[in-house]
Fold this sequence. Notes:
Radius of gyration: 47 Å
Order of helices and strands: HHHHHHHHHHHHHHHHHHHHEHHEHHHH
Strand order of the largest sheet: 1-2
CATH superfamily of the largest domain: MFS general substrate transporter like domains
Number of strands: 2
Mean pLDDT: 77
Shape: elongated
Amino acid sequence: MKNSNSSNAPKSSLIWMSVLYLLGLFIGAIDTGIVTPARPIIQSNLGVDASLGIWMITIYTLTYAAIIPISGKLADMRGRKIVYLISIALFGTGSLICAFSAGVSSFAVLMLGRVVQAAGAGGIMPVATAEFSTSFPEEKRGMALGLVGAVYGIANVLGASVGSLVLSIAGTQNWQWIFLINVPICIFIVIFGIIKLPNNKFEECKAMDKLGTLLMTIIILSLLYGLKNLDFFDFINSFCTKDVWPFILLSAILIPVFGLVEKRAADPIFHIEYLSNRQILITLILGLVVGCSMMGMIFIPQFSENCLAIPSGSGGYFVIILGFCSGAASMMSGKLIDKHGAKPVMAAGFAVTIVGCLYLSLVAVKYINIVNVIISLIVIGFGLGLTMGTPLNYMMLQNTSDEESNSALATLSLIRSIGTAIAPAIMVGFIVHATSGLSQELMDILPKQATMPPLPYAEEIDSSIGKMSENPMFASMMGDVTIPKLSEMTTMDMNMSDNNDSSFEMPPELLEKLQNSDVTTITDITVEMVDTMFTAMSPQIIATVTDGLDMGINGINTGLDSMKTAMGDMPDMSAMGDMPDMSAMGDMPDMSAMGDMPDMSAMGDMSDMSAMGDMTDMPDMSAMGDMTDMSAMGDMPDMSAMGDMTDSYNELLTLSDELQAVKDAIPSAFEEAKTNYCDSIKDMAPTIESTYQSTVNTGYKNMYLFQVGVNLFGLLLLAFYKEPKKKDAV
């Protein structure tokens, strides 16, 4: 095969080519990490959980990996300029679609945009690398490829930091700008690329392995979708779901079919014979391990934000530390490989990464401070720098012929990219699992009582009921109705952790907010959560209280009606006629003092008046006035009993009015209790934030212990690799 381009290109053409290709390479690589600090913000804004939100990164790396061999083949067939500019146009279009998803609040639109973006980015890297390797003079080719590697590495490292910078300038709610900044750059490249870039291609090229490409894409997508829905904390049950086993089974069935197709392909997209070579097979598995290990980087921004209690979107700056150390170690790895070989350098990288992950898991998450976070990032950065790229490429080239170098490296890149696609779907499960009980843990630390305002007439009502309860008539009137002591209703039970009220379910959007929260927003979200629960549960509680008051009021009103009837049956005093003027009787003489009155009828004609004795001793009968027959008055009513009933009636009437006032005040009292309770939650913000940090850090601890296991597996596998004799390698 011959390249139609000569390496003797004019200097001005090389300058334009360098600018346009490196600029495209930069934006393509930077978007691998630029979404990382914005991921929780985007998830919350678009209403998805973390397990689904991680796919905004996974789908990019997966599509990117699948497109690399396809775009390289198309560039050989149709020309690098055409494929490159189409790739840039696709990348810009995908960026616009991603930005548009913010306006329509659609995660599906965002996923479409990320796929289009990655399809474009996957065509940038191989074309740029090939163009630099053939266009520069041989004596400058190493420098040119080094420049490509440097730009690509720097862009990957700076991606998260650029994302944080954009969010800090535009605001977290304007996250679409992390995509929009690509658009003018893409327009610039396309316009000047049409004018300045040559269209280099191979004169002879084998046909594309279309069927193999299709089968490989289906296998990878099916496998990743199944793994994404697999809950490693409930492996058996989740594996049996229709979202897991059919897709994994489909991948398993297609793999041997794919093998047969690739054996017959003129220019296979995947060399099956590599799997029969022990050294190459170990190298490819190590590539998968490194791809998984690299994905620990995407969680560094959120880890830093949680540990240091800084707002979402600002943790990307800490990736600079990781990237700087990784870059420094990568530069060292080349010289170390020349001196000691790839195997010991790779082993050192795994070992250092293990130490860094252990420090993060066991020290940094327990003793939270910026020093421990930075130490973790420095050590992990150096470890990753020693394992990424150079040793694996060297090992792959050592075990393949020079004619296969391009396809060998493409295969390694594909396998490594599969690792980067699988790992986030697994690793995010540790965070989801850790935070699944977060709402319950928050409920456990919240105050168990809410302060209620004093109810009106509470003291008076309690006093009246206390006195009346001794009256049998009142007890009979109230029956089984019991009115609690209102003066003691100063608090409300808020032990929500023991609340088994199945009628209340946390709204899905609030659960998503809780999952997407950070240490700076958790208190506000907790207040919102309690407010929602209070609002949902209060009507039932208020109804129970007011129903009890209604029963008391109804019982009292029934008694009032009975008393009113009884009072109506009292005799009509006006029916007794004219009462004698008792005052006219004056001081009634003591009739007993008169002794036996003489028989007046026997007196006849009294001549001897002296016989009557001293008449002066007789009472003054005229003082009695006109006496009425007292017997006509009959039995007089007991006037004191009637007065007692009137007093009781008035007391009950007052009690009924007071209970009604309490009933009317209950809703506002509950509302004030809710306000008081929410204020008390705000006051305990440090405790809530500490609980949140501890819970989420448990997820990070387990995640990076998983990383320890991955790197330990790589270290053990490396022991079975036998390093061949040195050969020239790029």
